[in-house]
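Question: Hello, beginner here. Any chance you could explain the protein record under this note? Any guidance would be welcome.
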Amino acid sequence: MKLALVLASGELEKLQAASVIASVASSFGEVMVFATMDGLMAFKKEVVANKAWKAGELGKGMLKANVPLFVDMLKQAKEVGNLKIYACGMVMDMLKLKKEDFVDVFDDVIGVTKFLEMVEDAKVLFI
């Protein structure tokens, strides 16, 4: 199985859900995550350090309960599964951001065209 997740939301609940899906799927297939728009901004170092994500009632509950966060789940999944995570170059260029502005989880910075070429034969989910 080949799965691609387009992570465009910065909402904690969606980030958590995407990390669970990516983690499980990477244990039995190839998974590629493309972080773009607010989904990319959720990985900024200061956002992660301050846990400053958009969060509804469930997200706030997760933070209070100190559950493992999406960033840590994705890092762990990369160690044991077949998971690659890509940052959107267009968003980074627009906002004059560098890979160093984000937590160390991205395999590369790529554009939409490159990502679409990579996922041509994959099931694609938008989160």
